[in-house]
Specification:
- By secondary structure, the protein is of the alpha/beta class.
- The chain folds into 2 domains: 172 residues, Nucleotidyltransferase, domain 5; 167 residues, ATPase, nucleotide binding domain (Nucleotidyltransferase, domain 5, 2-Layer Sandwich), CATH 3.30.420.
- It is 35% helix and 22% strand.
- It has 13 helices and 12 strands.
- The strands form 2 sheets. Strands 1, 2, 3, 4, 5, 6 and 12 form a 7-stranded mixed sheet that branches. Strands 9-8-7-10-11 form a 5-stranded mixed sheet, sandwiched between helices.
- Strand 2 and strand 3 form a beta hairpin.
- Helix 1 crosses helix 2 and helix 10 packs parallel to helix 11.
- The protein is globular.
- The model has no long low-confidence stretch (mean pLDDT 96).
- The structure holds adenosine-5'-triphosphate and the ligand CC(=O)N[C@H]1[C@@H]2OC[C@@H](O2)[C@@H](O)[C@@H]1O[C@H](C)C(=O)O.
- Ligand AH0 binds next to strand 4 and strand 8.
Length: 368
């Protein structure tokens, strides 16, 4: 068990858009946020990304998984070694597959190897325990969103939206004393966010993403595809609920006949529809949605979300936060909670029956 009081911890996240590794320091006791620290980003090389892409959907022991794990470990060690002052690290790894109701959840990268390479204890495998206990194993950032709402001194319910490869939305009631209090949080994945758009850009234009939403801005949304999409059974499921990166692969097939610009506009609109349908599940309306993740840099997607929600929708920077690093900070925060035996998921965030502390701790040789 770690000493009490705030510690400087490093959190890392390699997200579903497969762009790279985010690493960020935070100083916390696992409840309140004392301060934010340095952060760095390490992009995957195209060859590395290809290794990861071809391992998507695979489970332990299947072809390509060991290679993907090696890519993830090397990239993380490279960036994590640049933070010599941390006492602990949180390592999410890379999700390859996620089927919480069937085969489980699969993140690659061995935390024990990271601990050995780094020389500090590493918390990892954050999702498995929650899934074993009947939870969705995702999203995990909500406990951190609760701490952020307190840090911001929010006085009324607020929502955090992450527009990564997949989208996820957290409704937070900051008037509650703690994240573990029933009714403090409701969280779920909204639907596809950037992943289908990235896949389209890669296949049709040889580019990793639609920079500034420029292609989508020139297109027209297919009302027919969008209306069908809005009636997807996922949106009728009561949250908590979570998604795998490719759960909406059919959407990519549906836009196949459209022009590049129309397909991009329709996929951006689909991301927005997922958010709007998701917000219908909020226990009470919110006045403000704070957006993190790369999608906040896509003005077309942001405008569509604003129009659909009809409330203030701002990048988290408007609240003094770093939207590129928020998920990485979350895994630092969660690492401290795990190291101190505190829960990381709750019935309102993953649907687990009772609060669970997910995560393994690996120590560097001789450090225990
Ligand atoms: N300037 C930009 N214009 C448009 N889109 C952008 C821009 N910058 C980033 N993005 C989009 O955001 C994506 C990266 O977002 P982010 O880093 O939040 O995803 P992630 O962490 O991999 O995903 P997840 O949160 O699902 O795990 C890029 O792949 C791209 O689609
Ligand atoms: C299984 C998995 O890796 N899920 C990711 C993914 O990316 C966004 C969304 O889907 C969210 O559920 C989660 O990541 C965020 C950081 C989370 O767990 O909070």
């Amino acid at each position: 068990m770690m000493k009490t009081g705030a510690v400087r911890v490093l959190g890392t996240m390699s997200g579903t858009s497969l762009d790279g590794v985010d690493a960020a320091e935070i100083v916390t006791d696992g409840v309140t946020i004392r301060e934010f620290g340095e952060s760095r980003y390490r992009a995957y090389w195209e060859a590395e990304r290809e290794v990861l892409r071809s391992a998507l959907g695979r489970w332990p022991g299947e072809p390509g998984v060991a290679e993907a794990a090696a890519v993830v470990e090397v990239a993380h060690l490279e960036v994590m070694a640049q933070f010599p002052d941390v006492a602990l690290a949180g390592f999410h790894g890379q999700t390859l597959a996620h089927e919480p109701e069937a085969r489980g959840t699969h993140q690659v990268g061995d935390g024990a190897r990271i601990a050995e390479g780094l020389g500090v204890p590493v918390v990892w495998d954050f999702r498995s325990a929650d899934v074993r206990m009947g939870g969705q194993g995702a999203p995990l950032a909500p406990a951190y969103h609760f701490a952020l709402a307190k840090w911001m001194k929010a006085r009324a319910p607020v929502a955090f939206l992450n527009l990564g490869g997949v989208g996820n939305l957290t409704w937070v009631d900051p008037r509650q004393p703690g994240a573990e209090v029933p009714g403090a949080l409701l969280a779920f994945d909204t639907g596809p966010a950037n992943a289908p758009l990235n896949d389209l850009m890669q296949t049709r234009c040889g580019q990793p993403f639609d920079e500034g939403g420029r292609l989508a801005a020139r297109g027209e949304v297919s009302a027919e595809i969008l209306e069908r999409f809005a009636e997807h059974r996922y949106f009728f499921r009561v949250p908590p609920k979570s998604l795998d990166r490719n759960d909406f692969a059919a959407l990519s097939t549906e836009v196949a006949e459209l022009s590049d610009a129309d397909a991009a506009a329709t996929l951006a609109a689909a991301a927005a529809v997922g958010v709007v349908r998701g917000a219908e599940h909020f226990p009470t309306p919110v006045e403000r949605v704070l957006v993190t993740g790369g999608g906040r840099k896509n003005p077309v997607m942001m405008a569509m979300i604003r129009e659909g929600l009809g409330c203030t929708v701002d990048p988290v920077e408007a609240a003094g936060l770093d939207g590129d690093m928020l998920e990485a900070q979350a895994f630092g925060y969660l690492a401290v909670r795990v190291a101190r035996g505190m829960p990381t998921t709750f019935p309102g965030t993953t649907g687990v029956g009772a609060a669970v502390g997910g995560g393994e701790i690996s120590y560097p040789p001789g450090a225990r």
